[in-house]
Amino acid sequence: MKPNSPLPEPENHAKLQAVDRALAEFFHSQLPSPWPECPEPTTRSSRTFATASDQPRNSGRFALAASVALLLGLGLALAPAIIPNPKPAAADKFTSGATANGKDLLKGLDSDRTEPKAP
Amino acid sequence: MNAESTPGRDHEFAALYDRHSRTVWAVAYARRLDSELARDIMQEAFLRLWREWETGHEILNPKAWLIRVARNLAEDMAKSSFRRNGTIPAERFSGVLSTWPSPIAQLELKERNEQVREVLNELPVGDRDILTLKYALDYDVETIAELLGIQVTAVHMRLSRARQRMAERLTTYGQVNQS
């Protein structure tokens, strides 16, 4: 017999019967027993669909949101203590009072230039 | 129309539940291979039907509507669950009936069920639909064809193909005798 040729009919029939038994046994073991009752009208509207597998996701999202909020709050609270207030740029003699045309910058450079001292 | 204000709706709802809850469970089960999850999905589908009634929407074909909702819920949950957890180990779903006579028999049944589940997982969902309706609920092919909206010949063909595939795979596990 070739490896891929179909089984002889009685042999195949026996195999399929075994499959039928295995499937019937499997599926009957999976049926809820007893069968769940029809929900009462008073409880139908208030029930929500939440399975056990959804719980970790919801709690995980909540934990993530709480962590982010905590970090943001801490950051805002500690920011003034960590970052010094920026000082005004008055100390910079080159840019103090300068305008965008750049001539004022040259003035600063000229005033800073000193005559070389004679040795 | 408000469902709460119509006493007849309670009876109609209960009658629909009696008639179709097993089919709706089977459709969900074929997609998730998880009995308890399929039960939750089945109940949720019925709750959504009730809410539709409460909001005044009339469902012309409740059976088809329930099956569609159960399918969508099962497939949506499969996607989100897979993203979260990856594939779920078969051990999680291998609960066995406590009425079996011995722990050895329970272990054997558990092992056989895990193998069957593994092979079922490899089949197309359309084939699992048919197998669940046939072997869990003992529906005939005509009923299955009507429920799934396909031809009777298509049910025969898919059923034959699925059984053959199961036979090949279960032979490798030793569940079906090699000849």
Model description:
The complex is a heterodimer of chains A (119) and B (179). Chain A is built from four helices and no strands. Chain A has 119 residues and is mainly alpha-helical. Chain A is elongated and about 105 Å long. With 179 residues, chain B is mostly helical. Chain B is 74% helix and 0% strand. Chain B is built from seven helices and no strands. The radius of gyration of chain B is 19 Å and the shape is globular.
List keywords for this structure.
heterodimer, A: mainly alpha, B: 179 residues, mainly alpha, 0% strand
Number of strands of chain B: 0
Question: Spans of chain B of 5+ residues with little confidence (pLDDT < 50)?
Answer: 86-98
How far apart lie the N and C ends of chain A?
115 Å
Structural class label of chain B:
mainly alpha
Beta-strand residue fraction of chain A: under 5%
The dominant shape of chain B is globular
* Largest interface between protein chains, with number of residues from each side: A-B, 34 and 49 residues
* Mean pLDDT, all residues of chain B: 84
End-to-end separation of chain B: 64 Å
Outline the fold blueprint.
The complex is a heterodimer of chains A (119) and B (179).
Chain A: H1 9-30, H2 41-44, H3 54-82, H4 103-112
Chain B: H1 7-32, H2 35-54, H3 62-85, H4 103-122, H5 125-136, H6 141-148, H7 152-173
Helix pairs in contact in B: 1-2, 1-3, 1-5, 2-3, 4-7, 5-7, 6-7
Question: What is this entry, summarized?
Answer:
Helix content of chain A is 55%, strand content 0%. With 119 residues, chain A is an all-alpha fold.
